[in-house]
Amino acid sequence: MSEAPSELKYSKSHEWVRLNEDGSVTVGITDHAQELLGDLVYVEVPEPGSELDAKQACAVVESVKAASDVYAPLAGTVLEVNESLGDSPEAVNRDAYGNGWIMKLKPADSNALNELMDAGEYLEFIETE
Amino acid sequence: MLDTVGVSDIEQLFDEIPANLRSRPLQHIPPAMSEQEISRLMLQRAEQDGRPLCFIGAGAYEHHIPAAVWQIVTRGEFYSAYTPYQAEASQGTLQLIYEFQSMMTALMAMDVSNASLYDGGSALAEAVLMAIRANRKSKSQRVLVPTTVHPAYRDTARTIAGNQHIELLELPYDEQGGHVSMDSLADYEGEDIAALVIAQPNFFGVLEDVDALTDWAHRNGAMVIAVVNPVAMALLKPPGRWGEKGADIAVGEGQPLGVPLSSGGPYFGFMCSKQQHVRQMPGRLVGRTVDRDGRAGYTLTLQAREQHIRRSKATSNICTNQGLLVTAATIHMALLGGEGLRRVALACHANTRRLVEKLSSAYLRPRFDRPCFHEVVMTSSLPLKRLLRPLYAHNLQPGYVLSDDYPELGEALLVCATETKTEDDLELYRDYLARAIDKQVSAGCPVQPKMA
Questions:
Q1: pLDDT (tens digit per residue) in A65-122
Q2: Residue of A97, A52, A60, A109 lying closest to A79 (CA atoms)
Q3: In the CATH scheme, what is the code of domain B67-332?
Q4: Eight-class DSSP state of B373
Q5: How far is Cα A46 from Cα B263, in angstroms, rounded to an integer?
Q6: pTM over 0.90
Q7: Partners of residue A80 on adjacent β-strands
Q8: Which of B27, B295, B391, B416 is 20 to 30 A away from residue B212, measured at CA?
Q9: In this structure, is residue A127 part of a structural domain?
Q10: How far apart are CA B136 and CA B126, in angstroms?
Q11: Domain residues for A94?
Q12: Which of B136, B304, B309 sits opposite A47 (nearest CB)?
């Protein structure tokens, strides 16, 4: 059974979003997504400063058997990326909601967060998917 | 067979493809021929080449190939153009490709090599696409391509990259030197350029100032794509050591490494890069690993970026269908060794210098004053077409006439003498040419007399 912490928001493309105190959001892929992918061998992160549209492909997670795009769950500017994934992509497998974060965004519109699913809705969504 | 798969006619198998995307029946395919007929046709075509004494280089070079090379290549274990589908079951093939990659990285002083591409021209096009993907700091999709890069490579790059909104900007060459001078880069100082292409030697055979060009590119945030002759790299500074940081990608035509001229193909392209760009590299890569008992084994690596997994997002849409030529190149390099290859390069350089000395006269002289590898541009005060006609008649190919590609050079001939040419060959060329000049000069004075 996949985990989905209740304080986070979720997208249908399996990204999680955490609202930080300063108004920025941290983005990663969910525990369910990392489980489907298997052992990650590479994570390609976006360039800090780039402007992303909602649902724009902005990162790549590559496992031994597949490679998938990560989509921006909401529109915004990339503030920071998790450079340590370059050397240890397995952090996404071990700690998807912690050390496995991928990027920090400054949302273009903070209301966009409300359009995402909460933990209950997300768990239900992956059941039916 | 249609019964077995449960369809009534072959058209049903193509149902999914919209009618407007289907090609009409092929009109220009001749009827099938028997083995006897096709052998005869191929023999006739091969004889049209006429086995001339050849002083043409211009991208394809005649080198001595040890007899063992193609003898070994045609062994059953090697005799396939493809990477096998159950790749890991064919450890021998994988090991050979791994050896090829290791040799190429050593020759280029680069970190990684792929298993080969189609040819030099498409290798440059792929390098341009790769640089655009890999240079994430650059947003411009603009690549500087000197006109000293092989004209056919530039055409190929334009065909492939030009349709992907990538702009290839031409850099002129220096009038005296025939190289890319730093002055021509001044216009682009501080501009957003994704990559700079540097040919070494360039199409004129001239050596570029690779260190200064490489450092300029890196200072301006551009990646460096080296287009090199692999034989020359046994002698000259390899791309990985150009400037302070080295070239980012090195590509070229692999033909000089054990592949005969054979009327222009098949040849193969090679591509090496720095480790940090490996995931943007097209083509297949073979890696060495250990099995669970700790024994060495070979495997295809980085397959997740290939088209069967990443579909339209693939960074690799090219497989190793030049495998047989790579096999030849690997055996060729193994037989020659680094020192052997270096001696070939030295002999080519020395032969070409001797040839140019012998050919130089009041009517024909070297056009550029920079050092050359094994090709030299010579300009003539006499019209080349008429001058060279008797040499062709003597089954001697005197060089590549540059007037179509570089009309501004006037009557210009690109000559090349590899290690295959003997002193007698060079003298024969000199004698035929002297006679041809004589005929032109005495028959019609350079200052045309008025005919009544």
A1: 788 899 999 999 999 999 999 889 999 999 999 999 999 999 999 899 999 999 999 9
A2: A52
A3: 3.40.640.10
A4: S
A5: 47
A6: no
A7: A104
A8: B416
A9: no
A10: 17
A11: 9-107
A12: B136
